[in-house]
Amino acid sequence: MLLARSHIRAVVGAFALANAAMSFARSDDELFRTCFNSTIPSQVLESCSEIVKRPSTEQEDLAAAFKNRGVAYDDLGQYELAMQDFDRAIALNPRDWDVYNSRGGTRTALRLYTEAVDDFNRALGLNPLAYVVYGNRCFAKALLGEHAAALLDCDKGLRLKADNPGGLASRGFVKLLLKQYDAAIADYDAALRIRPDDPYSLYGRGASKFRKGDLKGADADLVKAQGLRPDIADYMASIGIRLAAS
């Protein structure tokens, strides 16, 4: 990835100019590192916003900054702002499969499941080996009620990368919807071995145990999930997972 650079306008003396240039380069590098690599949404928003305001930012970097800022907005639940940034990133770089995947994730959060599947289709058209996209499309298809097609996607993604926790959790979710509780628990177990503090997998496994009658095991998972995300029960109910046999 090319990093755009600005010029220092005025520094008195050659020594001062050299020192200022080195200091600027360091701070500029840090700005880009934070925008492109930080996992803290507030830091990403601040750094990427600074980059997109610069008229000297090169197009490739500008597209990446919009995409990463969109991911940060999504992490913060600001989905409309995320969508705006993903649209800008796609306009600048329509060949980036990852931005379609990211926009599909936001559309899933907005319950625009058909549109999300369209984005995941475009992502896979650009990168047919993107295992993470198969897991995401599996989840979106499951929410559309397309359970058989969802399982095909999850299985394909997991053939590409068997230890993808997102793909395992998505398949566990589909199997929970299909009342295949033992199979759902097995997938959630595998996902939680990799990502033990995932509230969605914990809640899904707890719901599966609850429906099997393992109330003690269910309670342990559900309490931990709610400690990690207090509104997890409401969210899971909104996508069809309630603590009652059905």
How would you characterize the overall build of this protein?
The chain is mostly helical and 246 residues long. It has a domain at 15-94. It has 13 helices and no strands. The chain is globular and about 60 Å long. Mean pLDDT is 90; it is low at 1-26.
Q: What's the SSE blueprint?
A:
Layout: H1 14-37, H2 41-53, H3 59-75, H4 79-92, H5 97-109, H6 113-126, H7 131-143, H8 147-160, H9 165-177, H10 181-194, H11 199-212, H12 215-228, H13 232-238
Helix pairs in contact: 1-2, 2-3, 3-4, 3-5, 4-5, 5-6, 5-7, 6-7, 7-8, 7-9, 8-9, 9-10, 9-11, 10-11, 11-12
Characterize the biggest β-sheet.
none
With helices defined by DSSP (H or I, 4 residues minimum), what is the helix count? 13
Q: Span from first to last CA?
A: 51 Å
Give unreliable regions as ranges.
1-26
Listing every helix as H and every strand as E from the N terminus to the C terminus, the arrangement reads: HHHHHHHHHHHHH
The shape, in one word, is globular
Number of strands: 0
| Helix share, percent | over 70%
Mean pLDDT rating: 90
Q: What is the percentage of strand-forming residues?
A: under 5%
Radius of gyration: 22 Å
The SS-based structural class is mainly alpha
